[in-house]
Each structure stands twice: as C-alpha cells, then as structure tokens.
Amino acid sequence: MRKSYKLILSTLILTLAIPVTVMGSGATTASDKKPGANSEPAAPTYSNVSVHDPSIVRDGNNFYVFGSHIEAAKSTDLMNWETFTNGYTTPNNVIYGNLSQNLATSFKWAGENDSDSKGGFSVWAPDVFWNDSYVNADGTKGAYMIYYCTSSTYIRSAIGFGVSQNIEGPYTYVDTLVYSGFTAGEAYDANSVINKKWTNTNIPQLIEGGKLSGSSDKWFNSDGTFSNITYPNAIDPQLMFDENGKLWMSYGSWSGGIFTLQIDPATGKAIYPGIDSVTKDGRLVDRYFGTKIAGGFYKSGEGPYMVYNKQTDYYYLFETIGWLGADGGYNMRLYRSKNPLGPFVDASGKSAVLPGDTDVSAFGNKLMGNFLFKREVGDPGTGIGYGYVSPGHNSFYQDPDTGKMFLVFHSRFPQKGEVHEVRVHQMFMNKDGWLVTAPYRYSGESLEKVKREDLNGEYKFINHGKGTTADLVESSYITLNKNNKVTGDVSGTWMSTGHNEAELTLDGKTYKGVFVKGWDPSSEQFVMTFTAMSNEGVTIWGSKQEDLKDSQIVADIKADLNIGDTSRVIANLNLPSEGMRHASITWTSSNPDVVSAAGVVVRPESGSSAATVTLTAVITKGTVTSSRSFNLTVLPYEDASLVAKYSFENDLADSTGSFGAGSITGNRIDNTGGTISYTAGVEGNAAVLDGASGVRLPNKLIDSNQYSVSLWVKPEQLTTYTTTFFGAKDGYNWVSLLPKGPVGDNTMVWSGSNVWYDGIAGLTIPTGSWTHLAYSVDNGTLSVYVNGELKFNGSNFPDIFTGTDSVFSLGVNWWDTPFKGQLDELQVYEGALSPVQVAELAEQ
Length: 844
What we know:
Layout: H1 6-12, E1 55-59, E2 62-67, E3 71-75, E4 82-83, H2 99-102, H3 104-107, E5 123-135, E6 141-151, E7 157-164, E8 172-180, H4 203-208, E9 238-241, E10 247-253, E11 257-263, E12 270-271, E13 277-278, E14 284-286, E15 290-294, E16 302-309, E17 314-321, E18 331-337, E19 365-368, E20 371-374, E21 385-398, E22 405-412, E23 421-429, E24 435-437, E25 457-463, E26 473-474, E27 476-480, E28 485-488, E29 492-497, E30 501-506, E31 509-520, E32 525-534, E33 539-544, H5 550-560, E34 584-589, E35 611-621, E36 624-634, E37 641-646, E38 663-665, E39 677-680, E40 685-690, E41 694-697, E42 706-715, E43 725-730, E44 733-738, E45 748-752, E46 756-760, E47 771-778, E48 781-786, E49 789-794, E50 807-810, E51 820-830, H6 835-841
Parallel strand pairs: 20-26
Antiparallel strand pairs: 1-2, 2-3, 3-4, 5-6, 6-7, 7-8, 9-10, 10-11, 11-12, 11-15, 13-14, 14-15, 16-17, 17-18, 18-19, 20-21, 21-22, 22-23, 23-24, 25-27, 25-33, 27-28, 28-29, 29-30, 30-31, 31-32, 32-33, 34-35, 35-36, 37-51, 38-41, 39-40, 40-51, 41-50, 42-47, 42-51, 43-44, 43-50, 44-45, 45-46, ...
C-alpha cells in the first residue's frame, strides 16, 4: 500500500478505516416495486454524501450509514442522503458527546494526539446495531450499540464500544475489547508517549479474571515487536447475529488478517477463546484475538462484513483488498461458509485465509473494482462516462419484506482525485448461490420478468477480471444476437432462463447472473443490463445501447465531435481516432508542419504571426461516411518575464528585489529546526538540503494561471513524492515538482485539486549530477521540460494560485520525505517560457 498524500489523505487516508454493519430490519422503501410488477420507477434523484467506510443499519423508516472520522448520514430511500454529524468536534460531539473524555480509555492506547493522529483524532469504521439483549446500567434491556476503533499506526489500534437509546447518539462508552500492536517490553512509536508494552492493554486483567490462560510468546517477533504477519490490526469491527442468535464480531486489517470473536449479547463484551488452538482445517485460533477467517502474510484485506442468508444457508464474508486511495485499486471480494467461524471459500474453492506470501488478487470473488463505461464521441451525456475508482469497504442490507439486497460502499471516481461518496447498488443471487452486483447504483428498480426481444442488441461490456490495479477497466462492445451467439470484442453464447436469469459463455468461461434494468446516468434512462459471475470469481457487466443505424451513429459522432477552443491553440490536440460503436475517425491537416494529423502542434516563434490550419475529420461506420472540418488559429510563443530569482549565494535572497528572502524550515513546510548550507553549484553557489530541512518561500510568489518555474537540481537520493518546488492554496489544492513521482517513478509535475494531474516526463532524473527542470502553465496548458527538452505537454491543468494567498517552499511540503541534495538558480516567471527561453536556461 502506498503512503498517503496531501491533507485530504492525511485525514482520510488515516482511514485505513472500514465499513461494516449488521443485517437490519425495517419496512420497504417508498420506491420499491414487487417482483413481476413490470413497470419502471420514476427517474431517480440523488443527494450524495461523503461517509468513508459506510456501515448501514435501519431504524424505522430511516437508513443510516456510519463511517470513519465520525461521519454519518441518513436516508429514507437509499438514494438521497443527508449528514447529521459534526466530525471530530468536542466536547459537543453528536455521536460521542465529550469525545476526548468519553473514549479516554481507548485513547490511552491509540487515536488521540498521538503518532499518526498527532494534533487530532483517529476514530474509524464504526458498526451500529440494535441489541434487544443488552442489559443497560439501570437493568433495562435493549440498546443501540456502536463498535468503533481508534488507531495511531498501521498496527497499534483498539476496538471499543458504547451504547445509546437513540441511534443518532450520543453513545456512552462501555469498554475496550481488543488491542493490537503491543510489544513484549517497553517501546514507543515516533511522536508518541504511549508505552506499547502488552501489560498496558486489557490482557493482564483478562488473565487475572481467568478469561485468558496467560500471555503468548507467539504475539511477538524475536526482537519483541508485534508479530503483525500473523495477528491483526484491531480495526474495522462488524457485528452479526448468526442463525442461532449468537453474536459475532469480525474485525481486522492487513497484515495479519481478519479474525472473529464471539460477543456476549447481554454485556457487549468479547468471549475470548482463552487458549490457543487450531480449527479442523488448520486455521489459527488465538486465545485473545479469536479465530482467523481471512488474510495474513502482510497482504491487504480489510473491512470485513459478514451476513447470513436464509435462502442459501450460507454466511457470506465481504472484504476489500488493495489500497483505498484513488491510485490504490481498492476492490471488494466475497467468500462464503456454512459456519461463521469458517472456513470461507470463494467460487473456485480457494480459502479466504491465505496459504502464504502470495498474490491476494487471486483469491475471492471480485465483485467490483476500477471500471469505466466509457463515453465515446457520439454517445449521450457528457464527460468521460460512468465509472468508479477504488470502490470498497462495504456493508450489506437485505430488506426483510421485499428480499431486496444492497451493497453499500464508498467510492472515488475517475478524474476526481480523492473525493469520495457513498454508493448503494442492488445485489442478486445467481443460480450457484453467489451474490452479484448491479452495474448501476440503486434507482428504485426491481428484478422482473424480462422479454427476450428486450435482451437482443449491442451492450457496453465490462470484465472486472481478478487483478488489483489502479488502471480503469474500460468498456468494450458485445452484441447478444437473436441466435444466442455473442459477437463483438468478445465472442461466445448467451441465454436467458427462468424469469430473468442470465448465462453467458465467453471465451470458454461461463458466467451466471441476472438481467435487470438500471438507470444509466449518461443516457438518463433505464436500460437493460446484466451482471454475472464465473466459477473463477470474475464478474462481468453489460449495459444495453440504443438500437441505431450506421447513418445515425455517424451523424451523432459528427455533431458531438469537439477539439476544444480552436481560436487560440497553444498545446497539442487530443484528436479521437474512434467514436461510439467502433466508428473510425481519421484526420488530415492543411498544414502538417504546424498541426499534424496526430494533433502535434508546433507554435510559431516569439514575435511571429499566428498560423492558421484546417483539420478535417472523416467519420466512417460500415459503408456510411461523413466529414467535419475545424479552422484553427495557432498562437506564437510569447517570452515570459522574470519576477523572482533565488541564486543561493550564501543566502536565501531574491536578487530581483520583488520578493522577500526565504526562511529555513524543518522537515515540514510549517515547522522550524532545519539547517541549510552552501556549496559550489551550477552558477556560483548552490543550496544544500540535508533531507530534514527545507526553505519556505514568500507567499503569493505566484498569483496567476500563466507562470513558469525553472531550477537546477542535484539529488543525493530519490524518494517517491519528495518535492523540489512546491506551491499550495491549501492541503487540498497544490502543485509539486517531483524528481521521482508515483507514476512509474517518473520525474513529474504533480497536482492535486478536484482531480489528480500527472505531468509525466517519461524518465527519472539521476542522482549525483545536475539536471535542469522547468515547467510552465499557460491558462491550463502544462509544459514540462528536462534539460531544455519538452517532455510533457497537456491541457486542463488546474488553476491553483490565482487570487489566493498560496504558500511556496523548496524541498518540503506538509507530508512527505524532504529533499536531500542540492538546488540552484530557482527562477519564477510571469507567463509561459518559450522553448528558446528554456533552452537558454538549461545551458550549463
């Protein structure tokens, strides 16, 4: 798992936190239709909320989701949500009252102003449910129970619980049940005063009370550290009553795996095994942590959610693997068992408990990962299409009256960075007793009897595969023909059985699922879809397209074709070569020396006149052809003007006199304690940064969307995310020049705002020698240069600095390893540098 970046992740990425909850009960939603009603619900409306790791529970007519960082929301229809919490506010916290005092016992171990949570709190992944059997302090029975976790590092965490008579709280703390990350002897984490020795947990009291046979040497590595290859991180609790009324808590996260403990319904406290043993199939039963049901061996796997299904008589275990960030490939997996203690297996019979240090992606039915129903030129809608990025940490709800089943999770979205929202998708049971997920979010639809004539036609097709990757799985095309053949990008056969069962055999693999209508947000209409899964645990989706003749397809593409502002072209153009339904688009140019048929732009030199070019697109589908022309004006370069220059001649002064001198920082942009020295550089002296220090530059060094930055760098070491030049409006909006970035270790300009932006150089600069780096921003056009050569040119770069009191620095930001090496001749310009100017600056 890669480390977090920027503030949005330093809060929410702290959130290795996770979803979870219990099957609830309640009435049908207002939009529910009975199976067989054969009528579409009204066009849906949605109100979205950001609740990470959402755990769903029902209370009366309201659905609730409770999530990490003390966020929660409610809804009456699973589509329109509203929040009611106030985050980490204390003492008047909506959920926990006086947060700091109420959870003080858990915070003594982790989660308040400590290590990773220094300066704040880390309260994650609660699970809320009503427990008829709980005995309150006044002797009455019944309470809402919240099981939560607090955490300070990747292994030092604790699970506690509280109770309330109101589902929305506040909840009164009762006890802390499980601790992790403890050590054999006295030890402390960075930025922490907490002694991690095991005697500072609840284990001594459990031993004294006869609930544990003693401590275990197996909990520790040979050096006394916590053995997290075998034992869990105590986060992500989820509670479930089994078919016999017993209460179980599943919990845990990478790297030691997921465990289950029995809970006493009357007290809410754990019934620990007391002694070590193994299950019949050889899985670990630990005296304290319980029975291992999934994971292990330092592999990802978190957010367990277990549910019993009467129809199949199976317990289903959900977990999420991968890393939760937008670049982490988070994805949901499913297993099942006849026993809440396992063994849980996937559709191919693989155990949820890993056999060793192996690829975890090969295990579990993959319900959903990164995907995009791609919007091609000519398709209805706007943007790039409909899809999710890193969907996961799910919970599950089944309506007791309608039988409808729902997958509830958070997701990020293509080109939207770390912004996340709650999503609810309906689930269905296939012929083999496995749950499959609707391609589109819930819109009030019901599973109904389908007509064969409604199934024939062309579909956008997604195969989720089994991998864990940050790459988007983009849609292709297949056709379900009347003769039951499947043609297109994948070939095979299909059939529909029963009222709505779908069975497709594609490239020799058989997938079983259902046909169901869903709301396509691109076309804004209900369309036929299918969702199905193979015996290898691979999920496929299809979304039916409107029946169109080739002539209409070509006309739609021609009308939709757009290459941007043609009146002031200053960057390479993205010329599509394909439109909807695999229609081809070919281009010709009236002046290829200025704009090529591939969209490569060569701007006139500074002082020259603008150039005009005509680009013509020829659109072809089958035997139908049409064309469309675009008249372009290509603007000449304009020389940028110098506004600040830091030459590091034994000081941090701006030699232009326009700005004040820089100041030395510690290992973060906003702290003190660093040191700086000087040595011979490219021109005169250079600044030497020691890997623990940086330079804070004056605010508002850049205050426009037309600017350039030039500097010489000589890294002593390369570490991912380490910045050389950094600027930020705030922790959510920033630009960073990285010698080694997160995309293939490339040198790059990296920005975070509403979306991630990667200006990738296509190389990694060396250590131990000088490299000239420069980049320019020209009203959204980003150009990146290495040693005077243009390495990246792209559009839609965000405007971070215009009209803001932005902060700037060298070698440090708020999060990452500081730069170690030398910097020289930092120059900041108003306007975009021309290639000639960059070449001159790169001359050593």
